[in-house]
Design a protein that fits this description.
The structure is a single chain. The protein contains twelve helices and twelve strands. The protein has 373 residues and is α/β, with parallel strands linked by helices. The strands form three sheets. It has an eight-stranded parallel beta barrel with strand order 1-2-3-4-7-8-9-12, surrounded by six helices. A two-stranded antiparallel sheet has the order 5-6. 43% of the residues lie in helices and 13% in strands.
Protein backbone atom coordinates (compact mmCIF):
# COMPACT_ATOMS: atom_id res chain seq x y z
CA UNK A 1 0.00 0.00 0.00
CA UNK A 2 1.28 3.47 -0.90
CA UNK A 3 1.64 6.27 1.61
CA UNK A 4 -1.71 7.67 2.70
CA UNK A 5 -1.99 11.41 3.31
CA UNK A 6 -4.11 12.97 6.06
CA UNK A 7 -6.17 15.61 4.26
CA UNK A 8 -8.75 18.29 5.03
CA UNK A 9 -11.47 19.71 2.81
CA UNK A 10 -10.40 23.35 3.05
CA UNK A 11 -12.35 26.09 1.30
CA UNK A 12 -12.64 29.86 1.57
CA UNK A 13 -14.81 29.80 4.69
CA UNK A 14 -13.86 31.55 7.93
CA UNK A 15 -15.12 28.76 10.20
CA UNK A 16 -13.39 26.00 8.24
CA UNK A 17 -10.16 27.96 8.17
CA UNK A 18 -10.35 28.70 11.91
CA UNK A 19 -10.66 24.97 12.54
CA UNK A 20 -7.86 24.02 10.12
CA UNK A 21 -5.16 26.65 10.70
CA UNK A 22 -3.91 25.17 14.02
CA UNK A 23 -3.56 21.79 12.28
CA UNK A 24 -1.60 23.39 9.44
CA UNK A 25 0.62 25.30 11.84
CA UNK A 26 1.43 21.99 13.53
CA UNK A 27 2.28 20.50 10.09
CA UNK A 28 -0.38 17.81 10.46
CA UNK A 29 -2.32 18.57 7.26
CA UNK A 30 -0.48 16.67 4.52
CA UNK A 31 -2.85 17.59 1.67
CA UNK A 32 -5.81 19.84 0.88
CA UNK A 33 -8.98 19.04 -1.00
CA UNK A 34 -10.42 22.20 -2.55
CA UNK A 35 -13.97 22.57 -3.95
CA UNK A 36 -12.69 24.63 -6.87
CA UNK A 37 -16.07 25.31 -8.49
CA UNK A 38 -17.58 27.06 -5.47
CA UNK A 39 -15.49 30.13 -6.28
CA UNK A 40 -15.50 30.08 -10.06
CA UNK A 41 -17.91 33.03 -10.29
CA UNK A 42 -15.86 35.06 -7.80
CA UNK A 43 -14.02 38.02 -9.29
CA UNK A 44 -10.98 37.60 -7.07
CA UNK A 45 -9.63 35.02 -4.62
CA UNK A 46 -7.72 36.57 -1.68
CA UNK A 47 -3.96 36.45 -2.22
CA UNK A 48 -3.34 34.64 1.07
CA UNK A 49 -5.72 31.84 0.03
CA UNK A 50 -4.00 31.61 -3.34
CA UNK A 51 -0.69 31.27 -1.52
CA UNK A 52 -2.09 28.44 0.60
CA UNK A 53 -3.34 26.56 -2.47
CA UNK A 54 -0.09 27.20 -4.32
CA UNK A 55 2.00 25.86 -1.45
CA UNK A 56 0.15 22.53 -1.49
CA UNK A 57 0.04 22.49 -5.29
CA UNK A 58 3.84 22.76 -5.49
CA UNK A 59 4.16 19.71 -3.26
CA UNK A 60 1.70 17.74 -5.41
CA UNK A 61 -0.70 17.65 -2.45
CA UNK A 62 -3.65 19.63 -3.83
CA UNK A 63 -6.71 17.73 -5.02
CA UNK A 64 -9.79 19.26 -6.65
CA UNK A 65 -13.37 18.37 -5.79
CA UNK A 66 -16.29 19.46 -7.97
CA UNK A 67 -19.91 19.88 -6.93
CA UNK A 68 -21.87 21.50 -9.75
CA UNK A 69 -20.97 19.73 -13.01
CA UNK A 70 -24.22 17.73 -13.07
CA UNK A 71 -22.59 14.71 -14.66
CA UNK A 72 -25.77 13.00 -15.85
CA UNK A 73 -27.85 15.88 -17.20
CA UNK A 74 -29.59 14.54 -20.28
CA UNK A 75 -28.91 17.78 -22.15
CA UNK A 76 -25.46 19.31 -22.58
CA UNK A 77 -25.88 22.67 -20.87
CA UNK A 78 -23.94 25.91 -21.48
CA UNK A 79 -23.15 25.96 -17.75
CA UNK A 80 -21.43 22.59 -18.08
CA UNK A 81 -19.16 23.96 -20.80
CA UNK A 82 -18.44 26.99 -18.59
CA UNK A 83 -17.61 24.61 -15.74
CA UNK A 84 -15.16 22.72 -17.95
CA UNK A 85 -13.59 25.96 -19.14
CA UNK A 86 -13.07 26.97 -15.52
CA UNK A 87 -11.62 23.54 -14.68
CA UNK A 88 -9.20 23.78 -17.62
CA UNK A 89 -8.06 27.26 -16.56
CA UNK A 90 -7.75 26.33 -12.89
CA UNK A 91 -5.85 23.15 -13.70
CA UNK A 92 -3.25 25.19 -15.60
CA UNK A 93 -2.88 27.68 -12.75
CA UNK A 94 -2.61 25.07 -9.99
CA UNK A 95 -1.44 21.50 -10.20
CA UNK A 96 -4.11 19.03 -9.10
CA UNK A 97 -2.94 15.54 -8.21
CA UNK A 98 -6.44 14.48 -9.18
CA UNK A 99 -9.95 15.91 -9.70
CA UNK A 100 -13.26 14.43 -8.57
CA UNK A 101 -16.96 15.12 -8.99
CA UNK A 102 -20.24 14.08 -7.40
CA UNK A 103 -22.42 11.35 -8.88
CA UNK A 104 -25.90 12.29 -10.14
CA UNK A 105 -27.66 15.24 -11.78
CA UNK A 106 -28.53 18.61 -10.32
CA UNK A 107 -32.21 19.37 -9.84
CA UNK A 108 -33.58 22.73 -10.90
CA UNK A 109 -33.05 24.87 -13.99
CA UNK A 110 -30.62 27.17 -12.19
CA UNK A 111 -27.23 25.52 -12.39
CA UNK A 112 -26.17 26.44 -8.84
CA UNK A 113 -29.54 26.04 -7.15
CA UNK A 114 -30.28 22.35 -7.19
CA UNK A 115 -29.63 19.11 -5.37
CA UNK A 116 -27.56 16.19 -6.70
CA UNK A 117 -29.87 13.19 -7.05
CA UNK A 118 -29.66 9.71 -8.51
CA UNK A 119 -30.43 8.57 -12.05
CA UNK A 120 -31.64 5.25 -13.50
CA UNK A 121 -28.83 2.84 -14.29
CA UNK A 122 -29.32 2.34 -18.02
CA UNK A 123 -27.17 2.22 -21.17
CA UNK A 124 -28.30 5.81 -21.87
CA UNK A 125 -27.08 7.20 -18.55
CA UNK A 126 -23.92 5.09 -18.74
CA UNK A 127 -22.99 6.58 -22.12
CA UNK A 128 -23.77 10.13 -20.98
CA UNK A 129 -21.69 9.68 -17.83
CA UNK A 130 -18.74 8.28 -19.80
CA UNK A 131 -18.92 11.18 -22.23
CA UNK A 132 -18.86 13.75 -19.41
CA UNK A 133 -15.95 12.00 -17.65
CA UNK A 134 -13.93 12.11 -20.88
CA UNK A 135 -14.58 15.85 -21.08
CA UNK A 136 -13.51 16.31 -17.47
CA UNK A 137 -10.30 14.40 -18.06
CA UNK A 138 -9.59 16.35 -21.25
CA UNK A 139 -9.96 19.60 -19.27
CA UNK A 140 -7.83 18.74 -16.23
CA UNK A 141 -5.32 16.26 -17.75
CA UNK A 142 -4.97 14.30 -14.51
CA UNK A 143 -6.64 11.30 -12.84
CA UNK A 144 -10.38 11.76 -12.26
CA UNK A 145 -12.83 10.08 -9.91
CA UNK A 146 -16.42 9.95 -8.68
CA UNK A 147 -17.88 9.88 -5.19
CA UNK A 148 -20.34 7.19 -4.10
CA UNK A 149 -23.86 8.30 -3.25
CA UNK A 150 -25.30 8.92 0.22
CA UNK A 151 -28.84 8.86 -1.16
CA UNK A 152 -30.76 6.14 -3.00
CA UNK A 153 -34.44 5.66 -3.66
CA UNK A 154 -34.42 1.91 -3.14
CA UNK A 155 -32.39 -1.05 -1.90
CA UNK A 156 -32.03 -2.24 -5.50
CA UNK A 157 -30.29 1.04 -6.40
CA UNK A 158 -27.90 0.60 -3.48
CA UNK A 159 -27.00 -2.87 -4.69
CA UNK A 160 -26.30 -1.72 -8.26
CA UNK A 161 -24.43 1.51 -7.53
CA UNK A 162 -20.90 0.09 -7.16
CA UNK A 163 -21.09 -1.95 -10.35
CA UNK A 164 -22.41 1.06 -12.28
CA UNK A 165 -19.56 3.20 -10.95
CA UNK A 166 -17.00 0.65 -12.12
CA UNK A 167 -18.48 0.57 -15.64
CA UNK A 168 -18.54 4.37 -15.78
CA UNK A 169 -14.93 4.79 -14.78
CA UNK A 170 -13.35 1.98 -16.81
CA UNK A 171 -12.83 3.89 -20.11
CA UNK A 172 -10.94 6.74 -18.39
CA UNK A 173 -9.08 4.57 -15.85
CA UNK A 174 -10.94 6.53 -13.18
CA UNK A 175 -11.16 5.96 -9.45
CA UNK A 176 -13.68 6.11 -6.60
CA UNK A 177 -13.93 8.44 -3.63
CA UNK A 178 -15.33 6.11 -1.01
CA UNK A 179 -17.24 8.47 1.26
CA UNK A 180 -17.67 6.44 4.42
CA UNK A 181 -20.38 8.65 5.87
CA UNK A 182 -22.30 8.19 2.62
CA UNK A 183 -21.85 4.46 3.13
CA UNK A 184 -23.07 4.85 6.73
CA UNK A 185 -26.22 6.60 5.45
CA UNK A 186 -26.94 3.76 3.03
CA UNK A 187 -26.23 1.16 5.72
CA UNK A 188 -28.62 2.75 8.20
CA UNK A 189 -31.37 3.71 5.76
CA UNK A 190 -31.53 0.27 4.13
CA UNK A 191 -30.54 -2.01 7.01
CA UNK A 192 -27.18 -3.15 5.65
CA UNK A 193 -23.83 -3.90 7.32
CA UNK A 194 -20.48 -2.43 6.32
CA UNK A 195 -19.37 -5.90 5.20
CA UNK A 196 -22.41 -6.23 2.93
CA UNK A 197 -21.85 -2.79 1.40
CA UNK A 198 -18.11 -3.35 0.96
CA UNK A 199 -18.87 -6.33 -1.20
CA UNK A 200 -20.91 -4.13 -3.55
CA UNK A 201 -18.07 -1.75 -4.44
CA UNK A 202 -14.85 -2.23 -6.45
CA UNK A 203 -12.56 -1.42 -3.52
CA UNK A 204 -9.48 -1.77 -5.72
CA UNK A 205 -10.58 1.46 -7.44
CA UNK A 206 -10.62 3.55 -4.24
CA UNK A 207 -7.97 6.29 -4.31
CA UNK A 208 -9.59 8.62 -1.82
CA UNK A 209 -11.75 8.22 1.29
CA UNK A 210 -13.97 10.87 2.87
CA UNK A 211 -15.11 10.94 6.47
CA UNK A 212 -17.64 13.40 7.83
CA UNK A 213 -20.74 13.73 9.98
CA UNK A 214 -24.41 14.29 9.31
CA UNK A 215 -27.85 14.44 10.87
CA UNK A 216 -31.01 12.48 11.61
CA UNK A 217 -34.40 13.30 10.15
CA UNK A 218 -37.81 11.99 11.21
CA UNK A 219 -40.13 10.79 8.47
CA UNK A 220 -43.54 12.46 8.48
CA UNK A 221 -45.09 9.81 6.25
CA UNK A 222 -43.77 6.80 8.15
CA UNK A 223 -44.03 7.40 11.92
CA UNK A 224 -41.04 5.94 13.78
CA UNK A 225 -38.84 5.89 10.66
CA UNK A 226 -35.61 7.92 10.92
CA UNK A 227 -33.47 8.78 7.91
CA UNK A 228 -29.72 9.42 8.07
CA UNK A 229 -28.71 12.48 6.04
CA UNK A 230 -25.27 13.42 4.70
CA UNK A 231 -25.43 17.06 5.82
CA UNK A 232 -21.74 17.49 6.77
CA UNK A 233 -22.65 19.64 9.76
CA UNK A 234 -21.62 17.52 12.74
CA UNK A 235 -18.74 15.48 14.15
CA UNK A 236 -17.71 12.13 12.65
CA UNK A 237 -19.80 9.27 14.15
CA UNK A 238 -18.01 6.42 15.90
CA UNK A 239 -19.32 4.00 13.27
CA UNK A 240 -17.53 5.94 10.51
CA UNK A 241 -14.19 5.65 12.32
CA UNK A 242 -14.81 1.91 12.62
CA UNK A 243 -15.56 1.82 8.87
CA UNK A 244 -12.31 3.70 8.18
CA UNK A 245 -10.17 1.28 10.14
CA UNK A 246 -11.66 -1.60 8.19
CA UNK A 247 -11.75 0.06 4.78
CA UNK A 248 -8.08 1.01 4.57
CA UNK A 249 -7.10 -2.65 4.50
CA UNK A 250 -9.28 -3.26 1.43
CA UNK A 251 -8.06 -0.29 -0.65
CA UNK A 252 -4.62 -1.09 -2.14
CA UNK A 253 -4.46 2.17 -4.12
CA UNK A 254 -5.66 4.52 -1.38
CA UNK A 255 -3.73 7.81 -1.32
CA UNK A 256 -5.86 10.38 0.56
CA UNK A 257 -8.20 10.30 3.56
CA UNK A 258 -10.15 13.56 3.82
CA UNK A 259 -11.93 15.16 6.79
CA UNK A 260 -14.98 17.12 5.65
CA UNK A 261 -17.27 19.49 7.52
CA UNK A 262 -19.25 22.54 6.46
CA UNK A 263 -18.52 25.88 8.04
CA UNK A 264 -22.10 25.98 9.32
CA UNK A 265 -21.18 23.15 11.68
CA UNK A 266 -18.03 24.90 12.92
CA UNK A 267 -19.49 28.10 14.34
CA UNK A 268 -18.03 27.84 17.86
CA UNK A 269 -14.58 27.27 19.32
CA UNK A 270 -15.85 24.02 20.84
CA UNK A 271 -17.03 22.66 17.48
CA UNK A 272 -13.76 23.66 15.87
CA UNK A 273 -11.83 21.87 18.61
CA UNK A 274 -14.00 18.77 18.09
CA UNK A 275 -13.15 18.92 14.38
CA UNK A 276 -9.44 18.94 15.20
CA UNK A 277 -9.89 16.05 17.63
CA UNK A 278 -11.56 14.05 14.87
CA UNK A 279 -8.71 14.93 12.52
CA UNK A 280 -6.09 13.79 15.06
CA UNK A 281 -7.94 10.50 15.50
CA UNK A 282 -8.12 10.02 11.73
CA UNK A 283 -4.44 10.91 11.36
CA UNK A 284 -3.35 8.46 14.05
CA UNK A 285 -5.40 5.69 12.50
CA UNK A 286 -3.76 6.37 9.14
CA UNK A 287 -0.27 6.38 10.69
CA UNK A 288 -0.98 2.99 12.24
CA UNK A 289 -2.01 1.62 8.85
CA UNK A 290 0.47 3.27 6.49
CA UNK A 291 2.59 1.16 4.17
CA UNK A 292 5.31 1.88 1.63
CA UNK A 293 4.45 -0.56 -1.17
CA UNK A 294 3.54 0.85 -4.59
CA UNK A 295 -0.17 1.40 -5.30
CA UNK A 296 -1.96 -1.15 -7.44
CA UNK A 297 -3.22 1.60 -9.75
CA UNK A 298 -1.97 5.18 -10.20
CA UNK A 299 -5.02 6.01 -12.36
CA UNK A 300 -2.95 7.69 -15.05
CA UNK A 301 -5.43 9.04 -17.64
CA UNK A 302 -6.26 6.70 -20.48
CA UNK A 303 -5.82 7.84 -24.12
CA UNK A 304 -8.84 9.89 -25.15
CA UNK A 305 -10.93 10.25 -28.26
CA UNK A 306 -13.25 13.18 -27.60
CA UNK A 307 -16.25 13.67 -29.94
CA UNK A 308 -16.99 17.29 -30.78
CA UNK A 309 -20.65 16.94 -29.84
CA UNK A 310 -21.62 15.84 -26.35
CA UNK A 311 -23.97 12.88 -26.01
CA UNK A 312 -27.51 13.95 -25.15
CA UNK A 313 -30.89 12.35 -24.55
CA UNK A 314 -33.74 14.82 -24.64
CA UNK A 315 -36.31 12.42 -23.16
CA UNK A 316 -34.08 11.80 -20.14
CA UNK A 317 -33.56 15.55 -19.76
CA UNK A 318 -37.31 16.21 -19.84
CA UNK A 319 -37.83 13.51 -17.21
CA UNK A 320 -35.16 15.14 -15.05
CA UNK A 321 -36.86 18.52 -15.36
CA UNK A 322 -40.19 16.90 -14.53
CA UNK A 323 -38.82 15.13 -11.46
CA UNK A 324 -37.07 18.30 -10.30
CA UNK A 325 -40.26 20.33 -10.58
CA UNK A 326 -42.28 17.71 -8.68
CA UNK A 327 -39.76 17.46 -5.84
CA UNK A 328 -39.24 21.21 -5.54
CA UNK A 329 -42.90 22.23 -5.52
CA UNK A 330 -44.76 19.39 -3.76
CA UNK A 331 -46.71 20.77 -0.80
CA UNK A 332 -47.53 17.40 0.74
CA UNK A 333 -46.47 13.79 0.39
CA UNK A 334 -49.82 12.80 -1.12
CA UNK A 335 -49.52 15.56 -3.71
CA UNK A 336 -45.96 14.48 -4.48
CA UNK A 337 -46.94 10.84 -4.99
CA UNK A 338 -49.91 11.77 -7.16
CA UNK A 339 -47.64 13.90 -9.35
CA UNK A 340 -45.03 11.14 -9.64
CA UNK A 341 -47.61 8.53 -10.56
CA UNK A 342 -49.02 10.81 -13.24
CA UNK A 343 -45.62 11.69 -14.67
CA UNK A 344 -43.54 10.23 -17.50
CA UNK A 345 -41.39 8.53 -14.83
CA UNK A 346 -44.18 6.09 -13.99
CA UNK A 347 -43.59 2.56 -15.34
CA UNK A 348 -40.21 3.58 -16.76
CA UNK A 349 -36.51 2.91 -16.17
CA UNK A 350 -36.73 5.12 -13.08
CA UNK A 351 -38.75 2.34 -11.37
CA UNK A 352 -40.55 4.81 -9.09
CA UNK A 353 -42.98 2.06 -8.13
CA UNK A 354 -40.22 0.49 -5.99
CA UNK A 355 -39.03 3.72 -4.35
CA UNK A 356 -39.02 3.82 -0.56
CA UNK A 357 -41.63 6.40 0.63
CA UNK A 358 -39.27 7.78 3.28
CA UNK A 359 -36.57 8.31 0.66
CA UNK A 360 -39.02 10.05 -1.70
CA UNK A 361 -39.91 12.37 1.16
CA UNK A 362 -36.20 12.95 1.82
CA UNK A 363 -35.53 13.72 -1.86
CA UNK A 364 -38.23 16.42 -1.77
CA UNK A 365 -36.70 17.95 1.35
CA UNK A 366 -33.25 17.96 -0.24
CA UNK A 367 -34.52 19.56 -3.47
CA UNK A 368 -36.55 22.20 -1.67
CA UNK A 369 -33.68 23.08 0.65
CA UNK A 370 -31.24 23.54 -2.23
CA UNK A 371 -33.80 25.62 -4.18
CA UNK A 372 -33.83 28.16 -1.33
CA UNK A 373 -30.05 28.62 -1.40
Amino acid sequence: MSQIFSTVACNLDNNILAACVPLMEAARVEAIEWAFDILYTAEQVPSWFEELLTAYSRENRLIGHGIFFSLFSGKWLPEQQQWLNHLRKTSRYYHFDHVTEHFGFMTGKDFHHGAPLNIPYTPVTLNIGRDRLRRMQDACECPIGLENLAFSYSLEEVKRHGDFLEKLLEPVNGFIILDLHNLYCQAYNFGLSFEALKGLYPMHLVREIHISGGSWEDSETMPGRIVRRDTHDDAVPEAVFIYLEKAIDFCPSLKYVVMEQLGTGLTTAGRQAAFRNDFHRMDQLIRNKNRTAAPVNTFIPAPLSLPTLAIEDNFLYQQQLELSAILETAGSFDTLMEALQGSSLAHSDWQIESWDPAMIETAARIAQKWKKK
